Amino acid sequence: MTNPNTAHHTSVLTHPDWPTVAPYIRVEYYNRDGSARDPRFRLEVLTMPEDVAEVALKLEIGCPSCGRTIHPIRARALSKRSRAPHKRHYYLAVACPLDVSVACSRGYAARDEYLKIRAAL
Ligand SMILES: [Zn+2]
Q1: What local confidence, expressed as pLDDT, does residue 89 receive?
Q2: What was the pLDDT predicted at 2?
Q3: Lowest-confidence range among 38-42, 89-93, 108-112?
Q4: By C-alpha distance, which of 10, 20, 8, 69 is closest to 45?
Q5: What percent of the chain has pLDDT over 90?
Q6: Domain presence at residue 4
Q7: Is 80 domain-assigned?
Q8: Which domain holds residue 22?
């Protein structure tokens, strides 16, 4: 499923840069009555030092669902603070963006990956 030529890592957890970025990832619950099957949490990225942000934004993994190369650390919508890249607000997503594939981020592979990351933090 995963093309080894385009996706070197199928999980951020095995990515060599993960230990650099992981201390800045925070689990944020937003709906405590979500079922176990549909965990209601986001992986938010805390404000990173500039050098960590640089590493984080270059990080690439394969989508656990389709294998497409993706950038798991993504910036939220631009804000006034967005001029300095390291001050932007980031989050971690393990699957393809919704505008690429809705199915990937809603699939079981992505859900399992989110749970694995949460367990590892
Ligand atoms: Zn995908």
Answers
A1: 84
A2: 44
A3: 38-42
A4: 20
A5: 65
A6: no
A7: yes
A8: 12-120
Give the distance (Å) from ligand 1 centre to CA of residue 6: 13
pLDDT bracket for residue 80 (50, 70, 90):
low
3-class secondary structure, 110? helix
Q: How far is the CA of 112 from the centre of ligand 1 (A)?
A: 14
From the CA of 89, how far away is ligand 1's center (Å)? 23
For residue 109, the CA-to-ligand 1 centroid distance in Å is: 10
**Upper half-sphere CA count for residue 35 (Cβ side, 13 Å):** 2
**Is 2 domain-assigned?**
no
Torsion of CA 21, 23, 24, 28, to 10 degrees: 120
> What is the tally of structural domains in the chain?
1
Cα 8 to averaged position of ligand 1 atoms, centre (Å): 15
The pLDDT of residue 115: 92
Residues with CB under 5 A from ligand 1 (ion): 63, 65-66, 68, 96, 101, 104
Instruction: Tokens for 87, please give them.
Output: 């001050």
CA of 31 to the centre of ligand 1 (A): 25
Asked if the structure places residue 7 within a domain, the reply is no
Quote the distance between the C-alpha of residue 92 and its chain's center: 3
